[in-house]
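Two proteins were folded this term; both appear here.
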Amino acid sequence: MVTPQRPLPSGFGPETTALEALGGRDLTGFVGIVTGGHSGLGLVVTRVLADAGARVVVPARDPGRAAEALAGIPRTEVQQLDLVEPDSIDRFAESFLASGRPLHMLINNAGVMGHPERRDRRGYDRTFAVNHLGHYQLTARLWPALTETGRARVVTLSSRGHRFANVDFDDLHFERRPYDMTVAYAQSKTANALFALELDARGEALGVRSFSVHPGVITTGLNRHMDETERGQARAAYGPRRTAEQGAATTVWCAANRQLDGMGGVYCEDVDIAEPVAASTTATPGARPWILDRELAERLWTVTEELTGVGLPG
C-alpha cells in the first residue's frame, strides 16, 4: 500500500531526541547495519539501537578508528568497507551474508558533502558514487538478508539540500557542465530520496520497507571540505543547528519506531513524514515534487543498475 506523503502527525518534532524517537521499543534479537556509524549522527544512531538490544554492524574505511569510537557500546562490531570501491562493498556484503544473519535495519547513513571535484576509478563523480551508487550496491548485495526477516527497514539519508537540484540524467558526472559542489551534493541527495521511493515499491511485497530522511543539522566532519562562508550558507539552507541526539532522531524513528509499521516510500524530517511542497517554495522544509516522482525514481533505478552492473537478486 502506498503511504501518503503527509505528516501522521507523529507527536514528535525538531527537539525530539533519538532515544525518544525510538518509542521505547525493545530491539533484542534485531540486527542492524549503520554505515558511518562510528561518528557524528551515525554514532548516536548506533548507540541508541545497541542500547535497545540490537546487534549493530558498523562498516568503516578505517576499522581501527571506528573500533575506538565504539568502545563501550555493547553489541557492536566493525568491518571494513569503502563505499567508493565496488569490490569492497561486495566483500563486506559477502561476509555478512556468510554469517547467516538476517538484517532487520539497514541505515545508509555515510556520505560526503562540499567535496571538490573528484572522480572514482570508474570516472564517476565521487559525491554521486559515495552517496548514491555505493549505498544502492550495498543494499542490493544485502537483499537476501533483508528479505529473510519479513519486516526489514532500509533508511537512506537524503537532505533538505535536495531542493537545489534534480538528477541531471544527461550529465550525471559533470562531464559537460562546470562542476558545482552544491549541485553535486543536491543531486546525490535527490537520488537518495528517489532510491528509497523505488526500493519501497520493489520491497514491500517481500516485507522490506524503505524511507529517506533529512537528519538534523549538527557540526560533523561532513563539511570539512567547505570554507566558513560555505558552511554559513549551508546552515542557512538546511535549517537550524541541533544537538547530535536531536539530529539523529528522524533516522532512529524511521529505523525502528512502531508508528511506521506497514508504511514506507516516504521522505521524513523532524521525526515525522514531511509535508509535500511546491517546486517554487523558498522555505527550507518539505518534500519537493521531484523526489516524489515515481517515474523519475524508476528511471534512476534503471540508470543505476547500468552504472553499477548490479541489480536485486531474484
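Next, the second protein.
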Amino acid sequence: MISVIIPTFNSEKTIDRCLESLTNQNYKNFEIILVDGKSNDDTLKIVKSYLDKGLILNIKTEKDEGPYDAMNKGISMAKGKWIYFLGSDDYLYHDSVLKQFASYAEETRSDLIYGNVFFEPYGRIYDGEFNRSKLIKRNICHQGIFYKKTLFDRLGMYNLKYPVHADWEFNIKCFFSSNVKVEYHDFTVAHFSDGGLSSFEDNYREEMLDFLILKGIGRLSLRELSSVYRRFFILKTKSLLNL
C-alpha cells in the first residue's frame, strides 16, 4: 500500500483539485493522510466531503511547525510500505500515476523511486535523473519521489532545522548513504505548482552546503568537492558583505 501524505493549511482554493486527482486514480491500494495545521478557512469542510467518495482518509488537525513537521506526523501515522508526499496545491499528472509506480515497485529492491514533475510556473518537465553532483546544485522535488517507509526508520525524520529544505537534506542522506538504493524512472508524477525552485537561492542553501561538505566530503570527487567549496565561499562572502 502507498501512504499519500498531504500537509495543508488554509488550502481551500487548491485542495479540491489535489484530492480529485487521487479520486480518479485507477490504482486503489493507497491511503491518504491529511495533516492540517489548524486551517481557519473551508479546507477541512472540502476534505471531509471526500469521505463520501470512498477515499481512505485519515485526518489530523493541530498546530504544527510548518510543512516538514506535518510530514513527520504523517510518516508516524502511515500504514503503507511506500510513502508519497503531495502538496495541497499540487496534483497527480494523470489517472495512472500510482499504477505506473506500483509496476516499478513490484519488482524493485530499491528504497527510493523517483521520476519527474511538471513545473507549472515555467511550463516544463523537471528534472530528469540525478546524481550526487547534480544534487549539489538543486533538489529533486518530493512530489516526484516515493520513499520506502523504512528509510525514515533508518535515516531519521525530516530535520526541522531546515524549514525550507529539509527534504533536500534527506535526499542528500539517501544519495550519500552506501546502504540506500535509489532508482530513477522517466515518468512524470505530478503537477508542481509552488515556486520552490527559485527558493534555492535563499540562506538555507548555505546551510545545505555546510551539510554537503561535512557529510559528503568522503564520497565526492575532487571536481565535485571543488564545486561545493566554490559555491560555499561565494555564499559566505555575499553574507559577510550583506549582498
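Residues 195-202 have pLDDT under 50 and may be disordered. The chain has two domains: 2-200, 203-243. These notes refer to the second protein only.
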